[in-house]
Specification:
about 450 residues; alpha/beta; Aspartate Aminotransferase, domain 2; 2 domains; 7-stranded mixed β-sheet; 4-stranded mixed β-sheet; 15 helices; about 35% helix; globular; binds 3-[O-phosphonopyridoxyl]--amino-benzoic acid
Length: about 450
């Protein structure tokens, strides 16, 4: 087969992730370059990035500092063993991340993705209790509609049915809180008033199993992948209180909410609720090189630092944990966020964004609009008997008209790079209005 970078003539070998492979291969959509807020397609069109790639390119594309850092690092040292050896940049990155994170998070464990970070956090939670002599705490609690990546721990605590049902019996000893999506909150701006009581379900679950058997609760502070579900006012605080009361660790999965998406460094800052472990990825390296991390409090970290000093304290890690190129990308990314004040920028633009988002309310087939920071979701009434078709068509039409959006089920999700300008916001919502008005 001839190798044409712009348009390969054989698409059969690559089994695409989370994609309609057959639909795509009949009518491929290829990006060949990216700069700032725009992708360039193989047929030479500019497409406005309304999704920061997959919620990860928070500083936009082809950022000079990050490009240069990666180029320099790959020349200086490509790889260093991650176990029993170190290299300076990974320590530096851990320090920067600690400085950016809320106060109690003093320690950082590196992974290569959100999914790996979730597995790592769940394992740390279990091992922490065991290290403290509380080994009966083995149960994990997630939430309906939660997304915690695609590995077995993550889909076990996760609550998106299609991500679970094909894959066997999953982890045992897992239970789920109810999701927080209440119909009475439709079209509410910001955090909904109703639903804090849903956190009390944790008391019911704790009573059912015995609170002393529960190791951890994991939730996204704001559920992203399922279609943007905001925590009702007081809900996260209540979860925190119940976890503290019963000695249960609270894990925030900040893979989407981390690095400025809500206008603060992390969701924990934004909602002013501190978990015990925090999971991140995506924006950590601006999506440039895969990397994830788990942030832990000193209390958790120090519980492992016992026994003879030559012994490994935690039997967990990845070949690429803290890879030098990823570390260089991470450092340059965090510097870019700080130098350009991008988290504050997201906060400053949030009102304009929200107005644009809610201006679509009069378009046909819309049953809910929700958003926060630089996140938005538009929920469409599904076509009877053909779920997902309407939103997928909106995605295809927006792409044809030069805007990239995401869809999950019949929900359109938006999460642009934080460098977005007001005229890009106008363009994105203008395209959406056009598309939604004509959509069947
Ligand atoms: N936790 C959360 C909260 C996520 O959103 C993961 C874990 C897994 O991360 P990795 O890096 O293993 O993919 C995610 C990922 C979408 C979309 O459009 C969301 C994700 C990934 C791809 C697409 O909603 N979230």
């Amino acid at each position: 087969m001839a190798l044409d970078q712009k348009q390969p003539n054989d698409l059969s070998a690559f089994w695409m992730p989370f994609s309609a492979n057959r639909q795509f291969k009949k009518n491929p959509r290829m990006f060949v370059s990216a700069d700032g807020m725009f992708y360039k397609t193989s047929d030479g069109r500019d497409v406005l990035d309304g999704t920061a790639g997959l919620w990860c390119c928070n500083a936009g594309h082809k950022r000079p500092k990050i490009v240069e850092a990666v180029q320099k690092q790959v020349e200086e040292m490509d790889y260093a063993p991650a176990f029993q050896m170190g290299h300076p940049k990974v320590f530096e990155l851990a320090n920067r991340l600690r400085d950016m994170a809320p106060e109690p998070f003093n320690h950082v464990f590196f992974t290569n993705s959100g999914s790996e970070s979730v597995e790592t956090a769940l394992k740390i939670a279990l091992a922490y209790h065991r290290a403290k002599g509380d080994g009966a705490r083995t149960r994990l609690i997630g939430r309906e509609r939660g997304y915690h990546g695609v590995n077995f721990g993550g889909i076990s605590v996760g609550g998106i049915v299609n991500n679970r049902k094909m894959f066997g019996s999953l982890l045992t000893g897992v239970d789920h809180l109810p999701h927080t999506h209440l119909p009475e909150n439709a079209f509410f701006k910001g955090q909904p008033d109703h639903g804090a009581h849903l956190a009390d379900e944790l008391e019911r679950i704790a009573a059912l199993h015995g609170p002393e058997t529960i190791a951890a609760v994991i939730v996204e502070p704001m559920a992203g992948s399922t279609g943007v579900l905001l925590p009702p006012k007081g809900y996260l605080q209540r979860l925190r209180e119940i976890c503290t009361k019963h000695g249960i660790l609270l894990i925030f999965d900040e893979v989407i909410t981390g690095f400025g998406r809500l206008g603060s460094a992390f969701g924990a800052d934004h909602f002013d609720v501190m978990p015990d472990l925090m999971v991140c990825a995506k924006g950590l390296t601006n999506g440039v090189i895969p990397m994830g991390a788990v942030l832990a409090t000193s209390e958790i970290h120090d519980a492992f630092m016992q026994g003879p000093e030559h012994m490994i304290e935690l039997f967990h890690g990845y070949t690429y944990s803290g890879n030098p190129i990823a570390s260089a990308a991470g450092l340059a990314t965090l510097e870019t966020y700080v130098e350009e004040g991008l988290f504050q920028r997201a906060a400053d633009l949030a009102g304009y964004w929200e107005d644009g988002l809610h201006s679509l309310r009069d378009c046909p087939n819309i049953i809910d609009i929700r958003g926060m920071g630089l996140i938005g979701a538009i929920e469409l009434e599904p076509i009877a008997g053909e779920p997902t078709r309407r939103a997928f068509q909106a995605f295809l039409d927006c792409y044809d008209k030069g805007s990239l959006i995401r869809t999950t089920g019949d929900i359109i999700a938006l999460s642009p790079p934080l460098i977005i300008e007001k005229d890009h916001i106008d363009q994105l919502f203008g395209t959406l209005r056009d598309v939604l008005q004509k959509l069947q």
